[in-house]
TrEMBL record:
It comes from Streptomyces roseirectus. PROSITE patterns: GH10_1 (PS00591), GH10_2 (PS51760). InterPro entries: GH, GH10, GH10_AS, GH10_dom. PANTHER family: BETA-XYLANASE, GLYCOSYL HYDROLASE. GO terms for molecular function: endo-1,4-beta-xylanase activity. This is Beta-xylanase. GO terms for biological process: xylan catabolic process. Keywords: Carbohydrate metabolism, Glycosidase, Hydrolase, Polysaccharide degradation, Signal, Xylan degradation. The active site is at E273. It catalyses: Endohydrolysis of (1->4)-beta-D-xylosidic linkages in xylans. It comes from the Bacteria. Its EC number is 3.2.1.8. Belongs to the glycosyl hydrolase 10 (cellulase F) family.
Length: 346
């Protein structure tokens, strides 16, 4: 069910309860604006207090089709590659924030919420990090990298993907064998989150991964156990990102259950990198609905704007075609959120 369709019932119940209690409905019912049917993704998501965002590539910001879609439709951005370790600290202690700054400036100047992606990840990691074998050295390198990123973008980042893709694929439910895991052991994720919290206490700190959408998957359960453990011990974690790179069938039927079970641990959840092979309208609607059905699912990010911008462009998985025209999946997403497609806008 969509949140908007729930509201009248909730409102009605409040009115009845208030009248029964002898009060007046006017004092008890929150004065909400009537649901406006917006005609862009970001504006419609905002109607339920959510954002709708996209991955952005700095080198495409000069493409006017790209940037006009970006600024018309989306109110959140994630740097597709520009804040990754390889770009930010290609050699030890030498920091390059130029590309990341271009994404941050785009977000700031257009009022778009910014997700930092990502502080600690085994991929797009420069070779000099991968070859560190001493735990004290690697710990201080990791903590310094986190602190430098956090300080650079303090006040501009809403949420950070502090650790990305740290769990193994397959049936083990255990950790992925990365340099961080191999050299620092299980505690490195906790260390990373504590360092990030100290460096930027205002940012929301997220764990982000793929193939954790199916509640029955061992990987999902492994991440769930970690988040439950963190919450029980006061390790600072605020959110979990579900990348949601789906095949043509869209999300697994348990996706909503997964989102709501994580949310029940006391974290926000987001869909962070959504794309679906062939972009079927039903598959996209199911992914969006899973989020709308969970109060603490407060945002959806697609992983690129046009099919030609996608890392899996051969599968045409996004909401706009190569010319920047809306695909049927776009209208499906917008109407699933309760919006109305604009007439005459391609
Ligand atoms: O979309 C990104 C692509 O341009 C890069 O070449 C690739 C390198 O690994 O990373 C892609 O983004 C990934 C994201 O950072 C983390 N989750 C998986 C995404 C798709 O591979």
């Amino acid at each position: 069910m969509h949140p908007h369709t729930r509201q009248p019932a909730l409102l009605g119940a409040l009115v009845v309860a208030t009248l029964l209690a002898g009060g007046t409905a006017a004092t008890a019912v929150p004065q909400e604006a009537p649901a406006v049917k917006a005609s862009t993704l970001g504006a419609q998501a905002a109607q339920s207090g959510r954002y709708f965002g996209t991955a952005v590539a700095a080198n495409k910001l000069g493409d006017s089709t790209y940037s006009s879609l970006l600024n018309r439709e989306f109110n959140q951005v994630t740097a597709e590659n520009e804040m990754k370790w390889q770009t930010v600290e290609p050699s030890r202690g030498s920091f390059n924030f130029g590309p990341g700054d271009r994404i941050a400036n785009q977000a700031t100047s257009h009022g778009q919420r910014l997700r930092g992606h990502t502080m600690v990840w085994h991929s797009q990691l420069p070779g000099w990090v991968g070859s560190i074998g001493d735990a004290n050295t690697l710990r201080s390198v990791m903590n310094n990298h986190i602190a430098q990123l956090a300080n650079r973008y303090k006040g501009r980042i809403h949420s950070w993907d502090v650790v990305n893709e740290a769990f193994a694929d397959g049936g083990s439910g255990g950790r992925r064998a990365t340099v961080f895991q191999n050299v620092l052991g299980d505690g490195y994720i906790e260390t990373a989150f504590r360092t990030a919290r100290t460096a930027d206490p205002a940012a929301k700190l997220c764990y982000n991964d793929y193939s954790i959408e199916d509640w029955n998957a061992a990987k999902t359960q492994g991440v769930y156990r970690m988040v439950r453990d963190f919450k029980s011990r006061g390790v600072p974690i605020d959110c979990v990102g579900f990348q949601a790179h789906f095949g043509a069938g869209g999300p697994p039927s348990t996706f909503r259950t997964t989102l709501s079970n994580f949310a029940a641990l006391g974290v926000d959840v987001q869909i962070t990198e959504l794309d679906i092979a062939q972009a079927g309208t039903g598959a996209y609607a199911n992914a969006v609905r899973a989020c709308l059905d969970v109060a603490r699912c407060n945002g959806i990010t697609v992983w690129g704007i046009r099919d030609s911008d996608s890392w899996r462009s051969g599968e045409n998985p996004l909401l706009f075609d190569r010319n920047g025209a809306k695909k049927p999946a776009y209208n499906s997403v917008l109407t699933t959120m309760g919006g109305t497609p604009a007439l005459g806008v391609r």
